[in-house]
Every structure is written in structure tokens, then in C-alpha cells.
Amino acid sequence: MLPILMRKVLILNEKDNIAVCLVELAIGEVIGQDGLNLTIQSLIPRGHKVATAAIAKNEGIIKYGERMGHATTDIKVGEHVHTHNVLGDRLSTEQVV
Amino acid sequence: MSKELTAFERSDGRWGLRNHVLILPLHSAFSATARKIADESDGAVAVSHDWSGEIDGDFDRIVKTISGFAANPNNFATIFITIGTPNELGIIELARKHGLSKAEVLNVAELGSMGKIAEIGLQMANSLLKEAKAVSRVSAPWSAIKLGQECGGSDALSGITANPALGVASDRLVELGASSVLGETTEILGAEHLLAARAITPEIGAQIVETVARYERSINYEGIDMRGAQPSRGNIEGGLTTLEEKSLGAAKKAGSAQFSGVFEFADQVTKPGLYFMDTPGHDTEQLTGYGAGGINVIVFTTGRGTPTGSAIVPTLKVATNTTMADAIPDLIDLNAGTIADGLKTLNDVGGELFDLILEVANGQLTKAEKGLHHEFSLSRMYNTVIR
After folding, report:
1. Res B255: pLDDT
2. CB of A73 within 8 A of CB of A88?
3. B20-134: CATH architecture
4. Is B219 on the interface with A (CB under 8 A)?
5. Across the interface, do B342 and A49 touch by the CB < 8 Å criterion?
6. Ranges of chain B whose pLDDT falls below 70
7. A92 contacts B190? CB cut-off 8 A
């Protein structure tokens, strides 16, 4: 395992399909750590999430090993995962289909 | 254990970590006078609020909040300013029942002018402060600590740095015999199944789940779309996408101990162990509810920074990230961002926080206390009805 200082992203749980970016990541940047090999598809600010697996529309987003919402569109590996392509399952008017 | 805990023993066996003289208006119109007395005194504190005696759906909640806050064990004495109505005098009686031994009353109906109230109030406050200074701290058991957990202005690092570090400190305190309380019902929605699984009985687990379900029903009943409010715009900028994600991170404040029970808002926290209290996500309403429940020290984790503090309950701020901690050192007591920087481990920072809670319990002032950040908000569930 790389020390946290040398990592660009943090995987919180092995079940997760996202990782948390510890630094801002630019398009084209390659992440090769902790068994990951992915290319960043869009600018991702520090603290935001990157998809570490392909996520189909309506599929769950898993963080800390738990479901935190669902994809509202297909999400590719290396894409920014945020409010533009994710919705919570609860307390939002658009419900899971 | 490296250091011992010292505190102020109250006549009913409760423990104070501070020895305040609180000036408490029982009607909103006396707020400025309460403030004037506190400012001119040798160190009394005051709060102000907007309740003017309305009897509506929130009456019981407000009475519970004000009486509990007056009786917090961190108060050596409370001076009430009252118009003398039966409801207001009832609050004073309730505070006595909660264990407030020194309750002084400035009755506006009897004394008349505000000038007279301010004059007598100042003498009263200074005489009580003199009495308070003559009382010393004595060695106290760990059960003297009643810790309230809070988070505000969460960011993507909250659930990775400051919240789990607080979890480490909370677990240690609970193991030693202290009370520790997780609140903010809004911010466990989506994580309640994980907390319920840690309840000591299935009934308590079901209560945790029902507390969240009750909240969710009320929001759905009103047809509110929480997007845009929860997570807040600041949370979203910080990288949090959904309320469930925020909750999964927020729940980490409670560490891994078992839950011994569920409290309604501002219930008196009397027994050791880890508990959940049904409080609103609003920072100062929840801080006030904790104070009303007898919680005597609060750890507040924050990603965006906030000055929020209480007049009577020391409130420690733990930063989730180094950028913010460096930007507002006058508000942050401990930086847990060092975990994300790779400089320290979760256990290191959890240990530092435990030590700091002990220092603060023993009298070291928090940044919020030094800055005199004395916020107080009444929590309401209904529209206010004018009598």
C-alpha cells in the first residue's frame, strides 16, 4: 500500500464503485495505485468522487461499502460522480425507477 | 490514564465542567436587559431568544428547552428575568426539578422598571460570581463527562478525517463510563440501519429507525424536495452528492460503540453510554437542545468552519481539512485534516482529541469560549400562533 501522502485518490471500502480524490485531477491524468488503472475523463475537484467501475443508469453508488444513491445516467470509469449524474434514493422528488 | 478529570460537583450529584452564572430572560422582551447585566458583571453570561409566552404546538418543546438549559450542570446559578406569569414561573420550577440548586428570580411585575431590574440583577450576578469563585474543582468520575457530537458545514473529508476521529475519542470515553450523544436526525437518514444494528436491544434499534422514519414522513407530508437544502450548497461544493452520503459520513462521529438508547429532543442525559438524540440539523438549535439535555461538552466537526458556540457548554471545533484549519485558526481547536495529508493516523488524531476533551473538561477554554461565541436558538416544529 502506498502511503496516503503519495495517493491521488482514496478507496474507502473494497465494495465501493467510487474513490475520493485527495487532489484536483485533470482530464487525461492516469491513476495507477491500489490496483486501479484508470484515466480521468473530466476535471474533478479535491474531495469529489471518481468512478472506479462502470456504473449503469439506476445502479447504486457505493461509498463506505454502503449505498448512497443511484446513477441517473450511465457513468464511465474515470468520470466525475456528483449531482449531475447521481440522485439520492430518499427525500428527492425524482424516485428510483 | 495520564491525567485525572476534575469538575464541579452539584448538590444533586451532577457534575459541571464550567461554573457559570447565567442570566436567562423568560420573555424575549428582557433579552437586552439580560445582556446588559452580563456585560457589566464580573463574568456572567446571558442568552437571548424570541419566545414571548406563545402557547402553541411548540409550547412544551420550548419550556423543556429553556428549563433544561437553565439547569445545565455547567451553571453554578441561573438568574431568571420574568414577567411572573404562571407559565414562566413553571419553567423555573422545572429547572429546579432538573437539579438547578441556585435559581434567582428578577420579577418584572414586582420590581417594575428595567433600570431597577438591571441594577438589582447586576448586584445579584456579582454576588453569585463571588460565591462561584469560592467553589473548587474536585476529582470527578468519567461519568461526569456528557459529550455531545455535532457536525456542520460538512465536506467530503468529514466522514474520512474529523468524524471518525471523534468516533475514536467517543468510543474511549464511553468505555471509561462517560455519556456520549449523537444527534441530528436529518444527518443519519441513510445510515440509520448501520446504527440500529449496533443497538443493545432490537427495541432500541427499532426506535432509531422509527425516529428517522418519523422525520422522513413529515418531510414527505409537506412535499418538500430536499435537494438543494440537504446536502446544502456548501456540502455539494465540498464534494458531497446526496443526503445518504452525508449521513454515512456523519454517523462516523459515533464510533463503533453500542447504542444504549434513544432520547427525544432535550431529554435529560443521565446515564453513561452512547445514545442517539432526535435533534434538528440546524447547528445552534441542536447545540441548544444538547445544553438543555444536560450535555456539558460538545465536539463540533466542520469542513467549512463556523464560529458557533454556546454561552455555557464548551464547544470544541475539529477541522476536517488543513486548508480551512490554516485559514481560520481563531475558530479551530484541532485539525484532523492531517489524516488526509498523510501526516497522522486516525488513531493519532482520535487520541489527541480525547486528550483535548479532557483538557477542556478540566477548564482549558475552547476557541469558541475565547471568542465569546454565545449562540442560542429555540427549535420549533410548528408555525407560531399569537395568543
Report:
1. 98
2. no
3. 3-Layer(aba) Sandwich (3.40)
4. yes
5. no
6. 1-2, 225-229, 384-387
7. no
Residue B242 to residue A82, Cβ atoms within 8 A: no
**Dihedral angle computed from the Cα positions of residues B198, B201, B207 and B208, in that order, rounded to the nearest 10 degrees:** -10
> What is the predicted pLDDT for the residue at A43?
96
**Distance from B285 to chain A by nearest Cα, in Å?**
22
- A5, closest residue in chain B (CA to CA): B342
Question: Residues B186, B235: contact at Cβ < 8 Å?
Answer: no
Which chain A residues contact residue B227 at CB under 8 A?
Answer: 87-88, 92-93
Strand partners, A38: A31
Nearest CA to B77 among B23, B12, B31? Answer: B23
Domain ranges, ordered by start, for chain B: 20-134, 142-370
Q: In chain A, whose CA is at the least distance from the CA of B228?
A: A92
B238 in contact with A at a CB cutoff of 8 Å?
A: yes
Q: What angle do CA B238, B157, B147 make, to 5 degrees?
A: 115
Entry pTM: 0.94
Distance CA B174, CA B142 (A): 9
Determine contact: B194 vs chain A, CB below 8 A: yes
3-state SS track over B1-69: CCCCCEEEECCCCCEECCCEEEEEECCHHHHHHHHHHHHHCCCCEECCCCCCCCCCCCHHHHHHHHHHH
Mind telling me how many Å the CA of A92 is from chain B's nearest CA? 5
Interface of B with A in 150-169 (CB under 8 A): 155-157, 159-160
Residue spans per domain, chain A: 4-87
Please give the ipTM for the structure prediction: 0.93
Instruction: Indicate the SS3 state at residue B273.
Output: strand
Residue range A4-87 in CATH 2.30.130.110: yes
CA R_g for chain B = 20
Kindly report, residue by residue over B112-127, the tens digit of the pLDDT: 899 999 999 999 999 9
